[in-house]
Structure formats: C-alpha cells, structure tokens
Amino acid sequence: MRIAIIGLGLIGGSIARRLRGFRGCSVAAYNRTEEVLRLAKQDGAIDEGFSDPGDAMDGADLIILCLYPRLNVDMVKNNLSRIKKGAVITDVSGVKTFMVDELSKILPDTVDFVGAHPMAGREVGGYKSSTDTLFENASFLITPTKNNNPESVALVREMAEYIGCKHIVTTTPEEHDEIIAYTSQLMHVVAVALCDNPIIEKSRFFSAGSLRDCTRVAKINEVMWSELFVENKGALVKRIREMEASLEKMAVAVENEDRNELENIMRHACAQKIKWLEEKE
Asked: What's the rounded Cα separation, in Å, for the pair 62 and 165?
C-alpha cells in the first residue's frame, strides 16, 4: 500500500510518525519546504518527500489531506490526473460539510472521499512539534456519507486505530459541524474575546490560574481559525448566540441580586460538567 500525506505540519507529521508498518505501507509526503521533508525522511517518518503534491499523490492508495480546508480542495482539484482509480481520500479538517460539498463537485466516482477529524492538537504547530504520541487515547471522528464504500470507511477506521486513537466515532458531516462549533470553535471564540478585553493589560498578577486556563487556546493560528469559522458560519453563529443568551441570563440575575437564580444556574452547570465532562475510567 502507498500512502500520501499532503502537508507535514503538526497533524500530518504526527500521523506519518505512527504509520510505519501499517499494512506494510510506504509513505510519501508533500510539503512546501524542503527542510521539513528532509527532517521527516531523516526521522524515518516518510519514505519519500516531494515539493510537488502531484508526485506524492501519484499511485497512492490512500491520500490524507492535512492542509487548511480550502487548500486541501485546491490540491485535489489541481492534481486530479495524478489520483489513481480506486484511491481513498481522507482529511483532518475541522469542518466537514464544506469538504464533502466541495470535493463531491470535482471527484470522479472512482475515487472515494471519507471525511475525518482527529481530536488532538497542541498550542504550537509545524512538523517540529509533531510527536508519535499525539493521538494516544484521542477521539477520531469519521463522517461518511451514503455514497461511500464500506471498505473505504473501514480503511480510515483501521488507520485511526493504528495511529493510537481510542474512541472512533462515526457521525454525519452536518452533526460534526454543529457539535464542533460548540466543543472547539466556540472555545476559541471565548478565549479570543477574553483576551480582546483591555482589562487584561492590568490582570497579570490578579489571577490564580483561571484566566490562563480559560485563555489557553487564544494562542491561535489566525489564518486557519478564521477560515474554519467562516466555513462553519451557520453553526458557529448559533453557538455564539446561545452563549450570549446564557451570559445575558446571568447578567440579569446579578443585576437583580437574585442569588437563588444564580445558584440554580451554577448548580445545573456543575451537574452537567460532572455528568458529561469529568474524566472516567
């Protein structure tokens, strides 16, 4: 089996590091910088490195797109002639409806795209930040459609398990985008909003840690995240409006000195946190 990884950043590099031995595969990779390709080959993460994405895709049985969503689509569109019949394409993008819609317009019936999204990351990106343990115990979301071959979905699932993911979740592209707008994108919106408040300039020694905890993901790749926000604007705007409603409810209770209402809100939130987000063996 020949696998092509398009983009050796944090995610692509970490996948490459874990694929050694998977179905006896050889791993080819595209990256725009020669230095990264040299490092990845030196590390044994890849067998071949190319500065032309078509050369990496040529003859590949499985193509893993690890660039920004629009760039992923462009890479496929510009190299269709290099993608062999029967190939399976997957991705790691944080939006799925966009990817399915765009690739369905350009891919022939002989090539199967199965959307995917590993739920792992770090505050720092790039190949040098990649590790062979990034996906240990992580979730991996797969978003097949009715047009996918079961064998293609099974291949992506097998790959996810091989790289170390513990929870393989199958969902629809639409449900993925609705929930990710809450679990991931809204968290970045909140962190950015907190850091956009000028009072932060006086706050350095006024927090025991909660401010740092709540703003961890404000160290953000603004190019990637602005694209993700816009491509999932319908779901994300809904999540922002829901947050606004919750904040307004608490603001009214505080303004009215309604401690009973505040206690009820907090009690409910605490129960939800314990029920759904506490770590369990």
From this structure: 18
> Which H or E run includes 114?
strand 112-119
pTM for the model: 0.94
Give how far Cα 126 sits from Cα of 49, 76, 238, 259, Å.
Answer: 16, 22, 31, 48
Q: Is 145 exposed, middle or buried (0-12, 13-18, 19+ CB in 10 A)?
A: middle
pLDDT value of position 281:
46
User: In CATH, what number does 175-277 get?
Assistant: 1.10.3660.10
Q: What is the C-alpha to C-alpha distance for residues 240 and 180, in angstroms, rounded to an integer?
A: 13
In CATH, what class is 2-171?
Answer: alpha beta
Return the amino acid letter for 111: V
Residue 45 Ramachandran class (φ > 0 left, ψ -120 to 50 alpha, else beta): alpha
